[in-house]
Structure formats: C-alpha cells, structure tokens
Specification:
Blueprint (H helix, E strand, L loop, with lengths): L20 E4 L2 E5 L12 E5 L3 E5 L6 H11 L3 E6 L5 H4 L2 H8 L3 E3 L29 E2 L5 E4 L2 E7 L8 E5 L2 E5 L17 H13 L4 E4 L8 H24 L5 H8 L5 H20 L3 E6 L2 E6 L1
Parallel strand pairs: 4-5, 5-6, 6-7, 11-12
Antiparallel strand pairs: 1-2, 2-3, 3-4, 8-9, 9-10, 10-11, 13-14
C-alpha cells in the first residue's frame, strides 16, 4: 500500500472579519475577531437558512461580533442557536444570543470530560470550557433537524471534546473543530480523546459529504480526502512517539522536544497536550507502558 500523502494545510486563508460571506444557498459565514495561535483567523459563525435562520457557533462574547451577526440576520426570525461544541471560543456568546433572539439552544449535551480525571490530574483546558451552559434540546447522532429553513443531519464526532457535533447539508459538512483545513485539531486529555478522534475521522470519511466548512479557517474542497490525510498524519505522530521513546525519550517533555524541536512556545504547549493524548492512545493499545506520579509520567515501550 502506498504511504498516505501528508495533509495540505491552507494557512493563507484571509477572511473579511465581521462580513457576511455567502458560501452556498442558505449558508453564510461571519468570522469573529478572535484570531490567535489556537483559533487561527478567528471563529467562524454560520447563519443557516434564507427567510428564517439558525445560528451555528455564535462564538466569543464580543460586542463587535454580535453586532456583525445582528446585521447579517437583518429582520429574519432566528429559530435556534446551535453549537458544534462547548469550548468558549464557540459558545461564550450562546446564552446572550439565545436571549436576544428568544431562540432555544441546541447542542450535544452539557460539557463533559471524555474520561474521569485521574488522581492528581488536572484538565489543562478547564477554563476554556463552558461547564454551566445547558441545552434546551440535546441533539443525538443521526437525527434530522430543521435549522432556520434548512434541513440538517446531526453527526456526533467526539475526539476534540466529548460533546462535539458536525452537521450535514447536501454535499456539505459543517465540521466544527473536528476537521479543519489550517491545522490538525487539538486533542487534550481528559477533555478530548485520541481514540474517539480516530473513530470520528473514520466516521466522516465514510459519510457522503464532499465539501467541509470548518469552524476555523477556510473551506475544504475535498473534506473526506483531507480527513484521510489527517488520519495518516496522526498515525505518523504515533510512530514518531514510539520511535522517540525507543531512542531514549522517557518523559512527555523529551518526546515533544524530539518531535517539535523548533516550534514556538505556544504551539509546543498545544503539541504537548496532543502528545499526551497520543500517549494515552498507545497505552490503551498496549504499545506503551506509562508510569504516573506527582512529577509527571515515565514512558517505556511495551
């Protein structure tokens, strides 16, 4: 079998922040002004519908962004506020927007960890999660919903976090943070799960949608092929981690130094979180032995 081609990342995407950009009939993107190393050019909010709309991922609680959404909505009725997940760059404005438009909140249930915390463990992205936000309707896998005047199919895609959803339109998948074109997604245990992430990649690869519109960055022309490449990329990281441990790296910091030797500090922080998810994944599959203590973890090949 030929080796999987690496993913091609579009880092040149330059949105018109705050402008309503028509992507397809009934689908409009408004990018929030919250660019960062973790959000790229900002969170993409979407209006779904033509005469009646729903809002997907209202984004940060930012006055300028909320007014951009309001201008794009104009005088149309808002039927619901949808979330791909409850990380605050997507959901911080959700309650305020729901109250403004008297619209219900629909998402995949309250924020939850992918597994319980271990003794002495902390969730490194705890403050980035919307723990208190409750849905008026909990969306479930495979159900069909009406959002604005569009019909969507709900797909559970855990991995980046436990309550992550993607939404399907004809030939379009609104992929949230699960599949993005500018970078591979952050998987931070125990908030997320690498095993779930791989399973959700397999799921979207098997779905019939070709064009993906993610919550950060630009559209992905062939989303299934890109998801295949992302899967190969993560499998490569598994191999690199095992090789690093085999060559003497015994700690997570040592592994990150081997695999990401020149990345800036903030990127290395994200890499460390995702490498911890790879460690857990490989431990579950019997490829690594992990000894945990107050001072961190020690790694050895199984």
């Amino acid at each position: 079998m030929a080796p999987q081609a690496p993913p091609t990342f579009d880092t040149q995407f330059s949105p018109k922040v705050g402008a309503g950009i028509a992507l397809a009939p009934g689908l409009t993107r408004i990018t929030a002004p919250n660019a960062s190393p973790y959000t790229f050019t900002g969170t993409n909010s979407f209006l779904l519908g033509t005469n009646r709309v729903a809002i997907l991922d209202p984004g940060p609680d930012d006055t300028a962004h909320l007014e951009s959404l309001h201008r794009a909505i104009a005088d149309r009725e808002v039927s619901a506020i949808l979330l791909t997940h409850t990380h605050r760059d997507h959901s911080a404005a959700a309650a305020k927007v729901a109250a403004r438009y008297k619209a219900p909140l629909w998402f995949g249930g309250p924020h939850r960890l992918s597994r319980p915390l271990r003794r002495f463990e902390r969730n490194p992205i705890k403050t980035s999660c919307d723990w208190d936000l409750m849905p008026d309707r909990t969306l479930t896998d495979g159900e069909t919903i009406t959002a604005g005047d569009l019909t969507l199919t709900v797909h559970t895609t855990p991995g980046h976090c436990a309550n992550h959803l993607a939404f399907g339109l004809p030939d379009i998948l609104l992929s949230g943070d699960h599949v993005m074109g500018w970078n591979s997604t952050l998987v931070s245990v125990p908030d997320g799960s690498m095993a779930d992430y791989f399973a959700s990649l397999d799921k979207v690869i098997a779905l019939p949608y070709r064009h993906f519109h993610p919550a950060h960055g630009g559209p992905i022309e062939d989303g299934r092929a890109h998801a295949e490449a992302l899967k190969g990329h993560r499998q490569m990281r598994n191999d690199q981690l095992l090789a690093a441990v085999g060559n003497g790296a015994k700690t997570l910091g040592a592994v990150v130094k081997v695999i990401y030797p020149t990345q800036p500090a903030k990127i290395r922080m994200a890499a460390r979180m995702t490498m911890a998810a790879h460690v857990e994944y490989l431990e579950q599959r019997g490829a690594l032995k992990v000894k945990r203590g107050l001072l961190g973890i020690r790694l050895a090949l199984a």
